[in-house]
Write a structure and sequence with these properties.
This protein has five helices and no strands. By secondary structure, the chain is an all-alpha fold.
């Protein structure tokens, strides 16, 4: 994996995560959970912006994930919350999404290090891991 692949993947993951949180947010009744989910979205926006900036610096196109690619995740979220939209269940879904992101970012961090990527890319990757780990800790308060 080269750094451009990392930034493309980071952008795709943050776009997908943002979309998932946006889909869940209207189902949230708990004000504190709602606030914490908005913080999660803000983090995704930040990392998407970082990825876009890096891709633009390298004269690479920034490709938004086509809406049709979000459909399976959206259907899954709708099914998961159809009968249970409790704060505990929503928090569990958020934790699962963050854990998937952590695993993906760990793999990418290892690849960046193996291929001697820049310290900047590795640092951004580690910051994304830290961000998601903090989100997991925050969401654990709701289960």
């Amino acid at each position: 994996m080269n750094e451009l692949d990392f930034y493309r993947n980071l952008y795709k993951n943050t776009d997908t995560g943002y979309d998932a949180v946006t889909l869940l947010l209207p189902k949230v009744q708990d004000e504190k959970l709602h606030h914490d989910m908005v913080l999660h979205m803000d983090g995704y926006r930040h990392f998407a912006r970082v990825a876009r900036e890096q891709l633009k610096k390298a004269n690479q196109p920034v490709k938004k994930v086509p809406t049709v690619r979000h459909i399976p995740a959206r259907v899954g979220m709708m099914m998961h919350t159809m009968f249970d939209s409790s704060r505990e269940h929503i928090a569990e879904l958020m934790i699962n999404g963050s854990n998937m992101s952590i695993l993906d970012m760990r793999k990418q961090l290892n690849r960046l290090r193996e291929q001697r990527g820049t310290e900047e890319a590795a640092d951004i990757c580690q910051k994304m891991i830290d961000f998601e780990q903090n989100n997991v800790k925050r969401m654990q308060n709701y289960i």
